[in-house]
UniProtKB/TrEMBL annotation:
Protein name: Aldehyde dehydrogenase family protein
Lineage top rank: taxon: Bacteria
Keyword Oxidoreductase: yes
Sequence ranges assigned to domain Aldehyde dehydrogenase in this UniProt record: 25-483
Record InterPro entries: Ald_DH/histidinol_DH, Ald_DH_C, Ald_DH_N, Aldehyde_DH_dom
Organism name: Mesorhizobium montanum
Pfam families linked to this entry: Aldedh
Keywords: Oxidoreductase
Length: 492
């Protein structure tokens, strides 16, 4: 363990941050390393409903002050947060990998990316330009400005514990909102570390609040609070729809990023070695626990056998182990509950008639953790549950397509639509796929996972609801338009 991480660890008795003060909880939970369950990352305070009440109340006052503070103050604060995240990406990435289980390079990359969200939105704060219009009435000018919503609730998942939160928190603050953040319960250390950085900035007391606690109590309490004006959520569809129902009764502005079932199509003219690399990266990066993971491989029949042979060889060769160990290519899954759900999906896939060609079993390694061998199913059919439901696991299933039209049909044949990839050397095929894909993001000769931070991100159908996240599109959710009509009259 590095000296820097030992210093972070020494502080890890993480409290909530409410109304500008660090607060103990009614209860505490332990944060356990999924690579080694004997390693306790820290103890974290659990908020109670009164903390939500206090956080939102303080946020309301602080938000008005923050919105009036001026563009340059907001930009400077965001820039400072971003630069600190980038400068400490190795140390905080190690902490993230330790509590979430993704390999170190992914943990470090995620923290660095989180920093980029802050520096990007620091600049966007300055670019919140309005517009003007000619009125249909003589002598009247029209101004269209974008104002903050007020207090925004953010509920985030564990799979990208710092990046997902950052792509919500940064634009919320950039455009003048206050934030109350409820992170996922299995990854509190990353949430606490980000909050610790934000708590040291020159911001109004109460502008930013961290309330850790279980989703079904504290998350629900936050979503039901009468004084939040916006709610941005990433997680499962089931929780998302419950939150939407709650928010709808109070007309709270909503943004939901939920499940996916991303296809990766391989055509017979693809560079097969590259296609296999992209497939493995998309399916097993982050132990398959990405909303952009490739959980369905749709392979053109002429190259099916050759692709499968290479895919199996590469999957079997993946080194699974402790997330912080050099040379490990896939860490554990996040929790015992997730591992057990994954193994249930493996049993289900077999019972549905798919052929398990490799992996799918729990692994007993030197460290006691939630390890499983990456799994590939063959001879799948589209309507099998393993090809319809988000598993969030290192499990992928190969389907066969006779031609591009069938590949497109299969790619679109789920309730979801987040990302979709195709490997082909044909511009015409790639273009047809891109146009026909019912998904929010299309990847041509790239893995289904892996996006930029300065362009819109989101899906269609059951994957997303509400305005897009990231890039300039974020202004749509975190602000509302005000249209002013001005009649100046005649000058004296
Ligand atoms: P959840 O949807 O349960 O959790 C996401 C966030 O919502 C967490 O902060 C959680 O808190 C909170 N939450 C849970 N219940 C409520 C509630 N009733 N009201 C308000 N907030 C709530 O996802 P999980 O993390 O449990 O993962 C389950 C599955 O969801 C995964 O296996 C995967 O299929 C999918 N998922 C998809 C993601 C995506 O990016 N598409 C991201 C994460 C998950 P707490 O952690 O305390 O439960």
């Amino acid at each position: 363990m590095s000296t820097e991480l030992m210093q972070v660890n020494a502080m890890l008795n993480g409290q909530n941050f409410v109304a500008g003060e660090w607060r103990d909880g009614a209860d505490w939970i332990e944060d356990i390393n999924p690579s080694d369950v004997t390693d306790i990352v820290g103890r974290f305070a659990q908020a109670q409903p009164s903390d939500i009440h206090d956080a939102v109340a303080a946020a309301q006052g602080a938000q008005r002050e923050w919105a009036a503070a001026g563009l340059e103050s907001r930009a400077a604060v965001l820039d400072t947060i971003g630069r600190e995240l980038m400068a400490r990406s190795k140390e905080l990435g190690e902490l993230l990998s330790r509590e979430e289980g993704k390999i170190l390079a992914e943990g470090v990359g995620e923290v660095y990316r989180a920093g980029q969200f802050f520096t990007y939105f620091a600049a966007e704060a300055l670019r919140n330009l309005g517009s003007s219009a000619e009125s249909v009435r003589a002598g009247v000018d029209v101004l269209i400005e974008r104002e903050p919503l007020g207090v925004v609730a953010i509920i985030s998942p564990w799979n990208f514990p710092i990046a997902t939160a950052s792509w919500k928190i940064a634009p919320a603050l950039a455009f003048g909102n206050a934030v109350v953040w409820k992170p996922a319960s299995v990854t509190p250390a990353s949430a606490w570390a980000l909050t610790e950085i934000i708590s040291r900035q020159a911001i109004p007391k109460g502008l930013f609040n961290l309330v850790m606690g279980s989703g079904s109590t504290i998350g629900r309490e936050l979503a039901a609070n009468a004084d939040i004006q916006g709610l941005s959520f990433t997680g499962s569809g089931a929780v998302g729809s419950g939150i939407a129902a709650l928010a709808a009764t109070r007309f709270v502005k909503l943004q939901l990023e939920m499940g996916s079932k991303n296809p990766f199509v391989v055509m017979d003219d693809a560079d097969l070695d590259r296609a296999v690399d992209l497939a493995v990266n998309g399916a097993f990066g982050g132990s398959g626990q990405k909303c952009t993971a490739a959980s369905r491989m749709i392979v053109h029949r002429p190259v099916h056998d050759a692709f499968v042979e290479k895919l199996l060889a590469k999957t079997k060769a993946l080194k699974v182990g402790h997330a912080l160990e050099a040379g490990v290519q896939m860490g554990p899954v996040v929790s015992a509950g997730q591992l057990s759900a994954n193994l249930d999906y493996v049993t289900l896939g077999k019972s549905e008639g798919a052929e398990l060609a490799t992996g799918g079993e729990a692994l007993d390694l030197a460290h006691r953790g939630h390890y499983m061998a990456p799994a590939v199913f063959l001879n799948g059919r589209s309507l099998m549950r393993i090809n319809q439901e988000e598993m969030f696991a290192p499990i992928t299933c190969v389907l066969t397509a006779g031609d591009l039209d069938e590949a497109i049909f299969l790619a679109n044949d789920t309730p979801y639509g987040l990302t979709a990839g195709i490997a082909t050397r044909s511009l015409a095929r790639a273009t047809k796929f891109r146009r026909a894909s019912r998904s929010g993001c299309v990847m041509v000769n790239l893995a289904t996972a892996g996006t930029d931070y300065h362009v819109p991100f989101g899906g269609v159908r059951a994957s997303s609801y509400g305005p897009r996240e990231q890039g300039r599109a974020a202004v749509e959710f975190y602000t509302q338009a005000k249209t002013s009509y001005i009649h100046a009259g005649a000058a004296e």
